[in-house]
Amino acid sequence: MECGVCWHVYDPAEGDPVWQIAPSTPFSALPEDWRCPNCDAAQSRFLRLDKHD
User: Fold this and answer.
1) What is the value of pTM for the model shown?
2) In the predicted model, what is the mean pLDDT of the chain?
3) Are 1 and 27 contacting, i.e. CB atoms less than 8 angstroms apart?
4) Whole-angstrom Cα distance, residue 53 to residue 40?
């Protein structure tokens, strides 16, 4: 998932050290009050990234 404001990418494999989110945490399992660690945008501003191999 990518922030539509600042383009920060949430990578579930890495989690989010700023919010103390453990690695392997899917975006859907983030706490309701989680916000972009880069620009503080709400989860609703995140967009699904297309995976291209």
Assistant:
1) 0.85
2) 95
3) yes
4) 30
